[in-house]
Specification:
heterodimer; A: 91 residues; Arc Repressor Mutant, subunit A; two-stranded antiparallel ribbon; 23% strand; B: five-stranded mixed β-barrel; globular
Chain lengths: 91, 296
């Protein structure tokens, strides 16, 4: 299987559906549902379409007008939470 | 393959045709056709399938008791084993249900309760109809649904409301719903087995009605209606869908599509009130206010 060129991806057994600006995630392995607020939803969108953590954080820092250090800390915190629940894979 | 032909019936339930074999007299009011067929599954087929570990395990309420349900998948459909009842096979397009092997001396009431549970709910889900744990009423041509597990007061609330002028009972415990052209519809045509005979089927109502609002019932000391966010609405609909623990991944994915679309189509609110019969008139007051107040 060809490896994704994106920094992060959703595992094959995780489904994300946007509901307006927010999102619902379903982990098919344990049938658990999770929700993401608008900022978390946008972070996941950018993480799964950027080639690196730095590229994702630079784009988000610009979008939300937040200093890069704070943004990177928030982004890493979200990644850690998603990883702990098996909701994201880092390439 | 068995050669003995047995009576089979085509039932029209929740706007979908489902063939059930053998036919069930208790579903006669839904029958739209009868014929005779051979059961396509033999006992040896059943033994071969159940030798494998089940794909899914879950629990369902049967006669008020939690009952174990196991699901196996073969190339043409799903085999459901319901503890103390027997095995049912649902075709993968949801068009047919076979009672494959049942316990000896099974009461007709228990059989119909079991069939109207996981096998029928799965068959409808495979046809894009999702069954909510909900009671419901019809008022001014649209449906209000009250979500909640058993014991949350949804049947009592709907039964009381249905005694008010111009309100009709649509569902007591299970409400089939679907999306069509961006709108959510509810179907009153589903056997409501907890209601007394003769009232189990809202035959005077159309096959589909637009769904106006969903309320999640919560006990509280206050009388309050609070709209949920869209994402919480989707989670509420997902969490109150009957038999969803028996859905395999493709069906779960379709179900999540439905929940996210439904959450954008219909407002979902928490309805909080003290759970006492004497308080139901006050509940109706806040519902009327919610319906006319444009809280959408």
């Amino acid at each position: 299987m060809e490896k994704s060129s994106h920094y992060a991806s959703l595992p094959p057994d995780v489904i994300l559906r946007k509901v307006e600006e927010e999102a619902v995630l379903l982990n098919l392995k344990n049938t658990r549902y999770y929700s993401l607020d608008p900022v978390g939803t946008r972070m996941v969108e950018v993480l799964t379409s950027s080639s690196s953590f730095e590229q994702a954080s630079a784009l988000l820092s610009e979008e939300y007008d937040i200093d890069p250090v704070t943004l990177q800390s928030d982004l890493q915190e979200l990644i850690n939470k998603l990883l702990a629940r098996g909701l994201i894979e880092i390439s | 393959m068995q050669n003995n032909k047995i009576p089979s019936a085509l039932y029209r339930i929740a706007g979908r045709n489902i063939q059930v074999t053998p036919a069930l007299p208790g579903l006669q009011s839904f029958c739209v056709g009868e014929h005779e067929i051979s059961l396509p599954l033999t006992f040896s087929d059943l033994a071969a399938i159940t030798m494998q570990p089940p794909l899914l395990r879950g629990q369902g309420l049967l006669y008020g008791r939690n009952t174990n349900v196991q699901v196996w998948k073969d190339e043409h459909g799903f085999l459901l084993g319901i503890a103390s009842v027997g095995f049912f096979w649902t075709k993968q397009d949801g068009s047919k249900i076979y009672q494959v092997s049942l316990q000896n001396k099974l009461s007709p009431n228990l059989l119909i309760q079991a069939l109207v549970g996981p096998p029928l709910i799965l068959a409808l889900a495979l046809q894009g109809i999702w069954c909510l744990h909900a009671s419901a009423i019809e008022i001014n041509g649209r449906v209000l649904a009250f979500l909640g597990e058993s014991g949350t007061g949804k049947s009592t609330l709907s039964a009381w409301l249905a005694q008010q002028p111009a309100i009709r009972l649509v569902a007591d415990d299970i409400l089939p719903v679907t999306m069509h052209a961006g709108l959510m519809f509810a179907s009153p045509h589903f056997p409501q087995l907890k209601l007394p005979g003769g009232k189990q089927y809202a035959s005077g109502l159309p096959e589909n009605l637009p769904l106006g609002k969903l309320y999640l019932l919560e006990e509280d000391t206050r009388f309050l209606i609070q709209r949920t966010s869209s994402v919480n609405a989707a989670l509420t609909i997902a969490g109150n869908t009957a038999a969803s623990r028996l859905f395999e991944p493709i069906l779960l994915s379709n179900h999540l599509d439905f929940c996210s679309q439904a959450a954008s189509a219909v407002p979902v609110s928490r309805l909080m009130y003290p759970r006492q019969l004497t308080e139901l008139p006050a509940v109706w007051q806040i519902l009327e206010s919610d319906l006319t107040g444009g809280n959408d």
